[in-house]
Amino acid sequence: MFERERLLDDTREGIPLVTKAKRQIRNTVAPRPSPRQVASWQATHSKHPTWMLRKPPRGEYNCAGHVWGSRRTAIYDESGEFSQIFSEDRYEKKDISEVIPGDLAVYYLNSGSKRQFLHVGEVIEEPSREQNLNQPLILSKFGDTGGEYIHRLSDMPIQDYSVEFWSEK
């Protein structure tokens, strides 16, 4: 998912960021988006009219930096950082029927036999049980140059994915 960023021979600095076990999490403060990137995100937003814009396209952080880096940095899964975070911060998988605000929706790209991380967003409203709506609201930061959007679980800019829910123990 983050191949473009890895190929840029990034020399930008990260910030001090560690798991609860005090192991370093590799990260990079992302650059500001170019005018072309801003236009691209605006075009993507126009294809998703139910998305609610929370913050316009900007740099600094990506989806992982949004949920684990307090909107201060981008975390790319170069060396298994996400697995390290899930393990050392003691996350556990949840069923959608147990999801509450603050839990994470972790999206994986369905491509072949290898599961590839795609996106992580924060659940901000649990699914409506009264309306039989199995679609919690998610707060997402798309990419390291996109904006923050509030959207339903399945309203994503990519089609072939699966979702898991995770919460700290």
Task: Tell me what the structure shows.
18% of the residues lie in helices and 27% in strands. The protein is an alpha+beta fold and 169 residues long. It has one domain (3-168). The chain has a 7-stranded antiparallel sheet. Strand 3 and strand 4 (114-125) form a beta hairpin. The longest helix has 12 residues, at 35-46. The chain is globular, with a radius of gyration of 16 Å.
Q: Can you give the mean pLDDT?
A: 89
What is the count of helical runs?
4
Secondary-structure-based class equals alpha+beta
Radius of gyration: 16 Å
Order of helices and strands: HHEHHEEEEEE
N-C termini distance: 27 Å
What layout of secondary structure does this protein have?
Blueprint: H1 3-7, H2 35-46, E1 52-55, H3 63-68, H4 81-88, E2 91-94, E3 104-111, E4 114-125, E5 137-141, E6 148-152, E7 161-168
Quick synopsis:
It contains four helices and seven strands; from the N terminus they run ααβααββββββ. It has 169 residues and is α+β, with helices and mostly antiparallel strands.
Question: What structural keywords apply?
Answer:
alpha+beta; 7-stranded antiparallel β-sheet; 4 helices; 169 residues; single chain; disordered N terminus
